[in-house]
Amino acid sequence: MAENFKPFVPPEVSMKEFTLKSILLGCIFGIIFGAATVYLALKAGLTVSASIPIAVIAITLGRKFFKTTILENNIIQTTGSAGESIAAGVVFTLPGFLFLTDGDGAQFFNYITILTLAIFGGVLGTLMMIPLRKALIVNEHDTLPYPEGTACGDVLKAGEKGGDFAKTAFYGLGFAFAYAILQKILHVIAEAPAHMTQQVNKFFPSAKVSGEITPEYMGVGYIIGPKIAGVLVAGGVLSWLGLIPLLATLVPGETIATQLVKLGYLADLSTPGGQGRWDPVTRTFADYSVAIYYAYVRQIGAGAVAAGGFITLIKTIPTIISTFKGSLGSLGGNKSGEKQASSREVPRTERDLSIKVVGFGSLALILLMAFLPQLPGDSIGNKLLVGLLVVIFGAFFVTVSSRIVGLIGSSNNPISGMTIATLMGTCLVFIAVGWTGKVYEPMALVVGGMICIAAANAGATSQDLKSGYIVGATPKFQQIALFIGAIVSSIVIGLTVKFLDKPTAVMIANGVTEHAIGSVYYPAPQGTLMATLAKGILSFNLDWQFVLVGVFLSITMELCGIKSLSFAVGAYLPLSTTLPIFVGGAIRGLIDNKKKKENITTTAEEDELGKGNLFATGLVAGGAVAGVIIAILAGFDGTAAILAKLNMEPALNGALGHGGYYLLGTAFFAFMGWVLYRTARKV
Fold first, then answer.
1. Which residues are CB-neighbours of 272 under 8 A, at least 6 positions away?
2. How many CB atoms lie within 10 A of CB 598?
């Protein structure tokens, strides 16, 4: 029972916990993993939990160089994890400003607005978790395992093993950095080897197989495992080797170009360029697969993702109802307990921030949203309604998010479904009060964006509070650390988003002139989807015939017993993204099969802390961070010129030929897979 639970550090023990060094180290980790998450989420529409790697690294660095205690290490992990969750919420929604009707939302895709919404969403998620901690973390300690939080608590308790753990993670990080230098600076390794059949091919026109052979994709694939990775790539196979060749056979080039003009991907039929590189003289595309993808397949994929997210939400409705009832009941029970506790001194491990902080904080958020000029809305009344909707939806979905991650973990949290439901609910409220048209699309996206950030942060916050409960942390110190982590990481998250959105010289040469986000380089699938929904409901300008094809793709997958959201994301993304992820998942499958044949059984915790998982985590962190650094360097003219001089691709292409250059890159990727396999096999 939870009443008999004894934390690792007893309440009566006084130990260093909320110190300057623990907060600073946590902020550094939050910045690093926040920036890496932005990069990964924009490219692949996926994230991986940062809590466990931060805990592992915190133990190693903290114990060796800073003489930190277990409670200080917990604060480091708590502060740092805020960056990853907020980054995910930002990237999954706010790029949608770029894709609203007539591009009117692009004015709000600026650093100050992104920073403001990131901070507000992060603060909202933490605020709403303050009264829920006792209800969900303490009172339901035996029924809500919070798997990542429990694993982090076990890692912190096993601090004496931290060096061994971290050695493997740092090995992966270093390997990924070296690989990234060879790939993204020297260009010894091709970034995306590809093969496409000709448009004039009678049997299989414009079918493309490609792969962005990066460390982060292989690492993500290994972490999510063969099943999810297989479902992801299945969606890509359908789109790029099924739908695109079919449409290439049936739809004339000029019709495709007309559709691209309608969607804003091509200026007009007399202007060359755009997605697929349209030639107005020959009336053909240089790359039909990309043209068809942007003209039709992305809308089909958006419909599939929307339906998949909504189906996931519907399937969790019984959990949502019981969650809300249970949480309200627990809160009621807590009140009487708090009255009794007021007559005695509250133990250190039970001290939360005051409920007044929640009330005044929520009121302050509403007022700030009403009066800050950088947020969309043409009157204080409009903005007050938006702020009120944010707090109401936030209170509900933070509760839902916390209980769901308590049962099935943060990786399975249906954030997309909650955000879709919030966005649709907000749009329906707007329609009910007569707010229709493109002017209200950015306001709807603000509500959806803040709820997405809040729900994502609430899931991570819950895991952190669980870790703290296990090790014997002081809750109010964790809650303050979460506020600090949310604010500091938001500063860098906004900068990273804006840097990555700036097209590099290579992107400009390939027709990406205004925004890199939304292009083939950074597809931002969830952000595009949110904009698509807001436009469709408020402005009635959606190509529903394509969206409905995607809806029924997801329904078909569910009828086949397959989780449709993973398949839908795969159908939306380029195959070049999902194929290398599948390779990582396949390596994990080989490892699991080997263990099964050798009758080796491991617990979920042992898997999380296994050498394969830690090396893969290093690949993800190293590859993503290197990608961010190199993208930032490429954004400055001086360093971009230096990087261009270091580019060995032309020389290698001349010596090996195009096909030989691609084979060389594929060989490097295969070598990385072999290293991952060998590392995972070590006991």
1. 278, 279, 280
2. 8
